[in-house]
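Look over this entry.
=====
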Amino acid sequence: MTMSTIRQNRWEIAFAFASSNASGIDDPERFADEYETMSEDLDNVIFYPDRPSPTPEDFVYFYA
């Protein structure tokens, strides 16, 4: 799996989550873009390399 595939999958997962009625997010594309950016930033953090990236459900609490 290439990095571009991983990024695309992250974006699609976040978009699908944000598009659901239960999420309450008004702009699913913006949410997915910001989730992908946050995920890319965390890919470069070496503090906790074994820790999984936050899910879209986790990220929604920090999304404003």
Q: What stands out?
A: Residues 3-59 form one domain. The chain is about 60% helix and 0% strand. The longest helix spans residues 3-19. The chain has one domain: 3-59.
